[in-house]
């Protein structure tokens, strides 16, 4: 008797509160969805795939002077660089079997390093063997990259001339110019992006700064030669 009364009371309660069976089903589905969401959030996130490509920068690019390397100069916005990214990563995974190291340099972040190699096109690839550099001009496929090493094709390529070598005094000066250009670009982006200065106003600021620096250097040069002439006139060695 009590068992028969319970369903009637429940049904009468649903009728009084106007709760339909459809609402009960929706509440149950919502509760189940919440439980699934919580369960999914408790799952450990998969670990990011570790890259085998060595990121080279101004602080560690001298690693290229020891052992055998293949290094790519790239930019994130470069379409060709993006297309060969998977092949370059696969090439790096096989680096132990090929007995070499595989690196890359982001020219947008490391203009000084790209200056050492006088990089003007992207992507640019160099082969390095104990500090001797050769420009790789072959196909960017994995098969051609591996055959370049396995068949020692790099031996038939003319090494970079001494005055163009990344370790030469001239290339150190070029690296300084590249680094300066990157610094100027960052300031220009700060003026136009962060401060909202018009692009032509930013150009005008750099022109005025260049003229001011030139004027200061000219005054310093004039002062130096004037001082030197006075010292010579007074018999003082300078």
Automatic annotation (TrEMBL):
<keyword id="KW-0732">Signal</keyword>
<feature type="transmembrane region" description="Helical">
    <location>
        <begin position="24"/>
        <end position="42"/>
    </location>
</feature>
<dbReference type="GO" id="GO:0005637">
    <property type="term" value="C:nuclear inner membrane"/>
</dbReference>
<keyword id="KW-0472">Membrane</keyword>
<keyword id="KW-0813">Transport</keyword>
<keyword id="KW-0256">Endoplasmic reticulum</keyword>
<dbReference type="InterPro" id="IPR052454">
    <property type="entry name" value="TMX_domain-containing"/>
</dbReference>
<keyword id="KW-0676">Redox-active center</keyword>
<keyword id="KW-1015">Disulfide bond</keyword>
<dbReference type="Pfam" id="PF00085">
    <property type="entry name" value="Thioredoxin"/>
</dbReference>
<protein>
    <submittedName>
        <fullName>Thioredoxin related transmembrane protein 4</fullName>
    </submittedName>
</protein>
<keyword id="KW-0249">Electron transport</keyword>
<dbReference type="GO" id="GO:0005789">
    <property type="term" value="C:endoplasmic reticulum membrane"/>
</dbReference>
<keyword id="KW-1133">Transmembrane helix</keyword>
<keyword id="KW-0812">Transmembrane</keyword>
<dbReference type="GO" id="GO:0015036">
    <property type="term" value="F:disulfide oxidoreductase activity"/>
</dbReference>
<dbReference type="InterPro" id="IPR036249">
    <property type="entry name" value="Thioredoxin-like_sf"/>
</dbReference>
<dbReference type="InterPro" id="IPR013766">
    <property type="entry name" value="Thioredoxin_domain"/>
</dbReference>
<feature type="domain" description="Thioredoxin">
    <location>
        <begin position="41"/>
        <end position="154"/>
    </location>
</feature>
<feature type="transmembrane region" description="Helical">
    <location>
        <begin position="200"/>
        <end position="220"/>
    </location>
</feature>
């Amino acid at each position: 008797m009590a068992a028969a009364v319970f369903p009637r009371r429940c049904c009468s309660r649903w009728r009084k509160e106007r709760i339909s069976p459809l609402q009960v089903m929706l509440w149950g589905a919502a509760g189940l969805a919440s439980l699934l969401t919580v369960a999914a959030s408790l799952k450990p996130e998969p670990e990011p795939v570790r890259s085998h490509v060595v990121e080279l920068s101004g602080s560690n690019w001298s690693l290229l002077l020891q052992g055998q390397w293949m290094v790519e100069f790239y930019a994130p916005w470069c379409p060709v660089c993006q297309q060969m990214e998977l092949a370059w990563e696969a090439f790096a995974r096989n680096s132990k079997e090929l007995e070499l190291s595989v690196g890359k340099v982001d020219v947008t972040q490391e203009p000084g390093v790209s200056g050492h190699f006088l990089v003007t096109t992207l992507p640019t690839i160099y082969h390095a063997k104990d500090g001797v550099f050769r420009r790789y001009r072959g196909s960017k496929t994995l098969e051609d990259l591996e055959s370049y090493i396995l068949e020692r094709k790099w031996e038939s390529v003319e090494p970079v001339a001494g005055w163009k070598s990344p370790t030469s005094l001239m290339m150190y000066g070029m690296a300084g110019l590249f680094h300066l250009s990157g610094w100027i670009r960052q300031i220009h982006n700060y003026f136009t992006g962060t401060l909202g200065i018009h692009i032509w106003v930013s150009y005008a600021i750099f022109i005025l700064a260049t003229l001011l620096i030139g004027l200061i250097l000219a005054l310093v040069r004039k002062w130096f030669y004037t001082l030197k002439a006075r010292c010579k006139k007074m018999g003082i060695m300078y």
